[in-house]
Every structure is written in C-alpha cells, then in structure tokens.
Amino acid sequence: MFVTDIRKEFYDVVVNQRVALFVSPDIDALCACKVLQSLFHCDQVQYTLVPVAGWQDLGTAFMEHKEQYQYFVLINCGANVDLLETLQPEEDSVFFICDTHRPVDVVNVYNDTQIKLLIKQDDDLGVPSYDDIFRDDEEDEEGDGNDSGNESDGSAEPSGKRRRYDEDALERRIERQRARREWEARRREILFDYEQYEFHGTSAALVMFELAWVMSKDTKDMLWWSVIGVTDQWVHDKIPHMKYVTDIATLQRHVSRHNHRNEDEENSLSIDCMRITFEYDLRLVLYQHWSLYESICNSSYTSCSFKLWSINGQKKLQEFLADMGLPLKQVRQKFNCMDMTIKENLREVIEESANKFSMKDIRVQTFAVNFGFKNRFLASDVVHAAAALLENVEKDETSADNFIKALDCLSRSNLERLHLGIDLAKKKLKAIQQTVASCICTNLILSQGPFLYCHLLEGTPDVKLFSKPLALTLLCKYLLKAFLCSTRNKRCKILPLIMAAPLDVEKGTVIVLGIPPESETSDKKNFFGRAFEKAAESTSSRTLHDHFDTSVIELKMEDRGKFLDALITLLS
Amino acid sequence: MDPAEVEFLAEKEMVKIIPNFSLDKIYLIGGDLGPFNPGLPVEVPVWLALNLKQRQKCRIVPPEWMDTDKLEDIREQERKLDTFTPIPSLYYMELTKLLLNHAADNIPKADEIRTLVKDIWDTRVAKLRLSADSFISQQEAHAQLDNLTLMEINTTRSFLLDSLNYMYKLRSNLQPGRSQDY
Questions:
Q1: Domain ranges within chain A, ordered by starting residue
Q2: Cβ separation of B56 and A217 shorter than 8 Å?
Q3: According to the UniProt record, where is the region Disordered (chain A) (predicted)?
Q4: Chain B interface, mutation test: which of A44, A217, A272, most B Cβ atoms within 10 Å?
C-alpha cells in the first residue's frame, strides 16, 4: 500500500528497530542510500547495508538476513514484481520500498500489511482499481453449490415445477459463468495495458530528501545528493525532459531556502562551507575537468550535431571554434588553465555560436557545488564519476567493493576518489565515442523490421566496459542519436534500438538491452521488458532476467538467432 | 604528551549551545548537565556539543572571545610586548580548531578568526623559541614564563628537556676531575 505520511508510517516505525537496507546499483539509489544513512546516523539507528545487483542477489541476501531483521528497506528495487511471492517472507516481515521502477505490481499496491510503498502518489501511476482485478471467487462457488443443492433437493418435488426451477437455475449459472469470463478477459486486458510499458517515476533520492525536510533534518549535503539523484535520471535518460525540469524547479526552491538561511551581508560563511548554486550551464560533459575540445568531441549532443565521425564533421567543428574566436591552443588546454578572458563569457559565446549551427539546447538547467577554493563540481560531473566507479572493470574487484567505492566518492571528504572517478569517466566517454564512430562508419546497425539491431563483436576495443548495464545504456542512446543524424531513411528514425554486447566469454553469454525510439517528446516508456520475456518463452532460449530494469537481459550466444527472430515476429 | 591528548583535555571546556530537543537533567560522573529545552541556551562540555552538532541536534554559540575585534586586539598586544599576554582561554588553539572544523556555519567570519588565531599562535611560539634559545645559550639555572597554554608548552617540552639533559651530560664530561669525585 502507499504510505501517506512518510514520517509517521516509515521513519518513526524504523527508528527504534534494526533495519536491513537493500540498495540497487544505480546512482539514484546510492544517493537515496546516503541521505537515509545520514538520517540513521543522526538518530543512531542500527542498520545493515547490502548492495544487490539483481533479483537473485536480492533473494540470497534476503535469505541471509530474514532471521535477524523484521524491517527491510529496498531502494530502487522490488516494486515492479510481486515481492511476497518472490521472497516468501514470514508474516511479520515488513518491506518499505522506495523504487522508481514503474509500473508498480498490483499485488504490492493492494497488500495492506507487509508492503509499504514510499512512492509519491501524484506520479501518474494509473493503477487499476481494486474491483477490476481482484474479486471474491467464493460468491460464484456458493451460487453453483446452491444450484446443485437445489437440483438434488428438488428431486422430491413434482416434475413440472422442478423442470422450470432447473431451467432458471441453469440459466442463472450460465449467465454467471459468462459474466465471469467477460470479467476475466477485461482483467487480462487491463493488466496487459498496465504492465506493458516500463518507465521511471520520481527519483528515490528526492523522496528521501523530502522525508528529511519534513523532519527538519535536511542539510546541504542531503540536498546535493538529491540533486545528483535527479541528474542521474536525466543523464541516463530515464525520465522525460519535462519531468526533469519540474524536479529541478522543486530542488531550486530548496536550494534558495538553504542559501538564504545561512548567508547575509555581514556574516558571510566560511569558504569551506558547501554552497549549491543553480546554473544554466553547458551540456558539455565534464568540461570543467577536461579540455574544452575533448569535451565537445565526447559529448553526445555536440558530437551528433556536428557528426564528428566524418571528415565533414571535423571541419564543421573547426568552423565552430573559429566562429567563437577561440584559438586552438587554448581550447585543447585543460579548462582550468585557459585564459581568464576566454572563460568569463564562455557560456554566452558558445550559446550564440551553437544557435548558428542549429544546436538550440546547448545549455541546460542544473546545479553546481562549491566548497573550498579549488573544488567546483557540476551535478552531471559527479554522476559520471560515480557511474564510472560503480562499473569499474579495470581491476578485478567484486561489485560490492565497487559499490562501496562509488558510495564513498559522494562524500565531501573523499575528493581523491571523486577525481579518480572523473578520470575513469573520461576513459569511458572516449571509448563510447570511438565505438559509436566505428559502428556508424562500418554500418553495424541493421534494421530488422520493427527495430534496429547492433551487435558488438568480441574484438572491439574496450568491449569489457560495455558488459555493464549503465555503460551499455549510455552507448545505446548515443548510438541511436548518432544513427538518426546520419541516416536518410525516414522510416528508421522512429524505430527503437536493441543492442547486444559480450558479457562473459567463457560462459558464452551476451547482455541484451533495448531502448525506446528517440524523439523530442518521448515519454521514455520501454516495452522491451515484456517483449523479451515473451520471446524467450516462445523459443525457450536460455535467458536470465536478473536485472531490476526488465529491458536488460542476459542471453546465451547460440540462442541469439532464434531469440531475435521471435522478437521480430512478436513486434511486427 | 601527544597533541591529541591535549585536545582531549581541551574538550572538557564548557561552551554554550542551543538545542532543538528536550531532555531532563542528566547526571554524569563529571557533573550534571541540562535540562535541555528547545531554543534555550545551555552550557555543555565541548565533546557533547560537537556530538550533538554532528547529529544536527543543536546550534553552537561561539565563545565571547572568538570575535574578530577582540582577537585583533590580542594579536596587536602580543606583537608589541616581549612577554606573553594573558589570553581569554587556556585552550584557545584547540577550541578554535574543533569549533571551526565542525561548526563553521554557526560562527560568523570563520575564515578571519582562523587567520587571527594562527597569527597569535605563531607570535607566541616564536617568543617561546626565543626564550628557550636564550635560556640554553646563557646557561641560566631557572626561568619563569607566565601565561603559557598547555599546547604551547607541549610543543617545546620534549625538545627542551632532551637538550637540557644532553647539555648536562656534555658539561659533566668536560670536567673530568669533578665527576671522578662521585
């Protein structure tokens, strides 16, 4: 059931108990976890943090902890599947789910005792009403029983009356059965419509921050984490642009409240205190920690507008830089070492020139944080750094270690880790850019009818990076945008994209991911979750639907062909 | 002594806080604390103040001496005189460091205060070094220094004592006749 008063029904219940926290590996979940952890530290609540990478991990972790804990908090996992059936918990276990995955499973919504959903109800949830899906089956059975009872009892009565009575009873029964079949057909239809598309709701970090705000325990650190959570949803394309703008407006109100609270003319704050500012900043990834040139080359927006994989594109980039009057030597330098005169009006200059090259949205609303003299980060910088740390494939470390490192880099005291994350993110972005360029130039994207398909071969450089879902998602989106810019086929422009990359060479598995078609007003609703399930069933391919995002699956290499054929037939 | 030990002793100093929770009087071995009422100032030791601040349960009121004008006066006086001026708190260095690290948002003009206290510290330690130097070079028998704090004494303690011990050993070796009398 949905929790209406998050403070009374969630926080006051767990504050005196021991809690197990299950957190899924994405940046929004990490931020929500940080906010909740700092609230727990203030009130000295005992908790256990368990990172869970998928449904199997969740099951194992639950088995390990179910004896000792009664209260479980799940962050960004668990809402879109019937949790009680998957986990089979005891009667007294209570689950608090703060998840952005939609649609929320109907059993989770209508269970009153064990499942509490920490989800804002003004998200357009569209949950079907109770009577449409659940119905007392006992009435029907009783009715039938009466009829048969009447039939057997009525044997003593005169035959004429009994025949009439029988006919009535029979008619009633047929009527009831027909009504029931209609109801069931309608129920199937309603559920199918409801569960067909997968999308994302309000950020979990924002929900946790609002909990802290309601208790007046919100700090700037927590506000910054919720900013990062919302920015993560935008960077990884989980929410439509309108929702991002609305969430940013909400956050902007909190930011101004915090800024006015502490500063006034005479007693200005120490420079070491954290300051969050609202910025209308450039859409160039990591540009303040890189050189401007590299950033333009590796951001998907600019790279696709210029078509930087072609020679024409490179020429256009040089024209763009010349148009702004920026010397190449300056632009290729580290941003911090650029001339102050250039840096002063950089954003306006770039915006003007970008408009001439038909890049209307080069600026985007976001937040930046300042603390100390040296440290200035944009929210998207931190998202990329944390994502790179979370999916670090360089050293052989377990995913739990990477999770802890990524969680650490979000605190202010671990700046070296954040800088390490930024370096890893730079490598990842360069790898993405090169893979996209090679895919477009060698025409690796094939149109299979109802969708586009691209398969990354094993020998591709940096292919290990793309065995992780977040990196593969970024690559997919970038590739789709680039493909749209480079193709002339009008029909291909509205197709979704499915991408396969090698996951584990010894076991012979690939990771398959599907994203919806790219458009300006897309609502980011993804139907591949259900499509993958049905295709796997119909061809009995060996698949593993382990990720919390149902549009990401693992598949055996040999079954790839028949799986794709099944998908084509399903979707056409 | 470790500087950490000196800081530990400094945490017993009392400081005023404004709590946002309510609690009855608590009876600890070191003394009684409280009662705590939201919005009303109460004096607590620094260790408790910092713990409550980190749990967002209070707001710390800076001590009266932690003010830019007063500290500027002290600094000027320190620079003028050759001896040590009396300072408002025996643990000024530790308290400044602790409060500015954990509660900088409650202290106005925190950066200037940090600079001023550092200046005062530098002047005093320089004077201490000078006087230790002249003590050893002029081979005085005793010296008296007023208004020193424990942290400053601690910086010079091990060096001064060890060097005086060595000096004694060297002096007794220089006069072989006298030492043989023992």
A1: 6-125, 271-431, 444-571
A2: yes
A3: 130-168
A4: A272
User: What would the CATH number be for the domain defined by A6-125?
Assistant: 3.90.1640.30
Please answer yes or no on whether A219 and B56 come within 8 Å at the CB atom. yes
- Sequential pLDDT tens for chain A (572 residues): 888 888 888 999 898 889 999 999 999 999 999 999 999 998 889 999 999 988 998 999 999 998 889 999 999 988 888 888 888 888 889 999 999 988 888 888 888 888 999 888 766 677 778 777 777 654 444 444 444 444 444 444 455 566 667 788 888 889 999 988 998 898 888 888 888 888 888 999 999 999 999 998 888 899 999 999 999 999 988 888 889 999 999 999 999 998 877 665 445 667 778 889 998 988 888 988 998 899 999 998 888 888 888 888 899 999 998 888 888 888 888 888 888 888 888 888 888 888 888 888 888 899 999 888 888 899 999 999 999 999 888 777 788 889 999 999 998 888 899 999 999 999 999 999 999 998 888 888 888 888 889 988 888 888 888 888 899 999 999 999 888 888 877 777 788 899 999 888 888 888 999 988 887 777 788 888 888 888 888 888 888 888 888 889 998 888 888 888 888 888 88
What separation in angstroms does the CA of A180 have from each of A192, A228, A317, A404? 18, 49, 66, 52
Residues of chain A contacting B107 with CB distance shorter than 8 Å? 270
B57 to chain A: closest CA residue:
A42
Domains of chain B: 3-158 (1.20.58.1020)
* Start-end of H helices in A263-376: 292-298, 300-306, 311-324, 328-331, 340-344, 346-356
Q: Which residue of B has its CA nearest to A372?
A: B111
Using CA atoms, how far residue A418 sits from A383, A518, B49, in Å, is 10, 32, 31
CA distance linking residue B99 with residue B110, whole number of Å: 10
How close does chain A come to B107, measured CA to CA in Å? 8
CATH (residue range A444-571): 3.10.310
